[in-house]
Design a protein that fits this description.
heterodimer; A: 112 residues; 5-stranded antiparallel beta sheet; 0% helix; B: 113 residues; 11 strands
Chain lengths: 112, 113
Amino acid sequence: RKEVEQDPGPFNVPEGATVAFNCTYSNSASQSFFWYRQDCRKEPKLLMSVYSSGNEDGRFTAQLNRASQYISLLIRDSKLSDSATYLCVVNNPYSSASKIIFGSGTRLSIRP
Amino acid sequence: DTEVTQTPKHLVMGMTNKKSLKCEQHMGHRAMYWYKQKAKKPPELMFVYSYEKLSINESVPSRFSPECPNSSLLNLHLHALQPEDSALYLCASSQASPRDGYTFGSGTRLTVV
């Protein structure tokens, strides 16, 4: 089983739709959780951290379920500019440092 | 503008060449990372430096040699690479306890010929 698993998509949805991604992680000791966005041939950029209480940033809502070991990202009123690959990232403690594990990414394409 | 600066942005090198990738951050982060990313794949961790000491080496071949001269700089020395090493090499940095996420540089796109 992969440490972090995501549905690779692609998700192809019309502008204005609501879309949700899930991500599961295998290590119950995982400490921090993030969603990153990566555009084609660009570096990953932090979209939002994911907190136990859930958090919202504009049209984006992230949730963490520690009991079931999954995190989710909800995008409301999707825009053309939301087209990208969304990477689920989990931080695991590892001796003297920490190690971040990327999911394989979910490709999202918003059509006019 | 990214707060993690990588140079060069593009590099073409032969299999007998020696080259270095450079990464610099001035955010006071104490952890720095090298990742390798192939097309349509997620980034794969190569090395982690924590407080300027190598903490994690993900069984990377010795033709890749990392170096952390100080808390702001991270280098990746390349020697005798293979064509399959062609990829996007990403540097990232974070606080020692990365609750606020990781900041990535824009990467060096490496082609080995």
